[in-house]
């Protein structure tokens, strides 16, 4: 079977990583690259540098990766959909809900694979964590908390920290809990003099009753990517920078003493750090995209799921603006 011919548009910081991984993944070939702003990282190699999505389509590609700024996602991805090209769009899928809905419709009505690059789902620590939650290792899940902090990336200019970074946490939280967000309550800050917010703290309530807490900013001198899931039997801590997963057991044993049975206590128990097979998340994401194109079972993040993340992000921003709890479905 011939390789899937993949085109890449957007050759910035994320585009260069996509180019490298596409060249490494079995069953796909990087066939064309495009960026009207040029090729600052020299990733095109022996491929001609194209300047538009129309030229990319004319190169005869089967699939494409869109790594352009978010404000251009709709125009570029719609052109690809109209040409019958399966597409992976970097997150967030769109700058707003209306734009995202048009993209979802463009791909779904044509029966094309439309995927969004929510790469955290492919992190080995989070994949193992979800498997262990499903297996009942944590018992009932009570809370999911995330911390995503670090310096401001100068490449981001068209959205704030909520849509750029917090959509990672929105997606991974709903995915781990297998439940969507019901409501959110948020506070944001603008401290760096940019147009958009650079700090957000918000809580959430999922449809299944799990409560969540998220701290996200571009103002920290250290980089942190941590997810903590607390439940009846203890807590899992996933570090998605290192790909490590640690379990802190609740050492309190069940009692049959009737007068104290109503109190749910905890104590420090055994701590286990799991040995995980650590494959690059971006490579796993591209393999899932390839498998979806070939009609195989795939864990690709769909555009409809990506749209739901934008809806939650919009609710976070509305909550901060109105200083109130916002129901996502509103």
From TrEMBL:
Record flagged with keyword NAD: yes
UniProt keyword terms in alphabetical order: NAD
Boundaries of every Gfo/Idh/MocA-like oxidoreductase N-terminal domain copy: 4-118
Keyword Ligase attributed: no
Record-level Gene Ontology MF annotations: nucleotide binding
Alphabetical list of Pfam families matching this protein: GFO_IDH_MocA, GFO_IDH_MocA_C3
Positions of transmembrane segments: none
The GFO/IDH/MocA-like oxidoreductase domain, residue ranges: 127-236
Domain of life (superkingdom): Bacteria
PANTHER family noted in UniProt: BILIVERDIN REDUCTASE A (PTHR43377)
Protein's recorded name: Putative dehydrogenase
Organism this protein belongs to: Leifsonia aquatica
């Amino acid at each position: 079977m011939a390789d899937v011919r993949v085109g890449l548009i957007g050759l910035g910081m994320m585009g260069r990583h996509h180019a490298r991984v596409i060249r490494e993944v079995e069953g796909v070939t990087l066939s064309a690259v495009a960026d009207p702003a040029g090729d600052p990282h020299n990733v095109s190699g022996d491929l001609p540098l194209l300047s538009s999505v129309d030229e990319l389509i004319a190169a005869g590609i089967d699939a494409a990766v869109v790594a352009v700024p978010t404000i251009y996602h709709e125009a570029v991805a719609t052109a690809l959909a109209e040409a019958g090209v399966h597409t992976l769009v970097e997150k967030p899928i769109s700058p707003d809900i209306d734009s995202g809905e048009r993209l979802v419709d463009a791909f779904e009505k044509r029966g094309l694979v439309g995927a969004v690059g929510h790469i955290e789902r492919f992190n080995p620590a989070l994949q193992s964590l979800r498997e262990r939650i499903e297996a009942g290792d944590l018992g009932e899940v009570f809370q999911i908390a995330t911390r995503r902090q670090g310096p401001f990336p100068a490449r981001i200019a068209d959205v704030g920290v909520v849509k750029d970074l917090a959509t990672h946490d929105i997606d991974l939280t709903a995915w781990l809990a297998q439940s969507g967000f019901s409501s959110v309550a948020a506070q944001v800050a603008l401290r760096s003099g940019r147009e958009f917010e650079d700090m957000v703290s918000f809580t959430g309530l999922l449809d299944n009753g799990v409560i969540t807490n998220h701290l996200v900013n571009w103002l920290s001198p250290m980089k942190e990517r941590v997810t903590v899931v607390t439940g009846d039997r203890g807590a899992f801590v996933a570090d998605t920078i290192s790909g490590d997963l640690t379990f802190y057991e609740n050492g309190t044993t069940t009692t049959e003493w009737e007068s104290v049975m109503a109190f749910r206590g905890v104590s420090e128990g055994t701590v286990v750090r799991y040995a995980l097979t650590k494959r690059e998340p971006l490579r796993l994401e591209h393999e899932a995209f390839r498998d979806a194109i070939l009609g195989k079972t795939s864990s690709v993040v769909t555009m409809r799921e990506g749209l739901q993340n934008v809806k939650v992000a919009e609710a976070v921003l509305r909550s901060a603006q109105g200083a109130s709890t916002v129901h996502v479905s509103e």
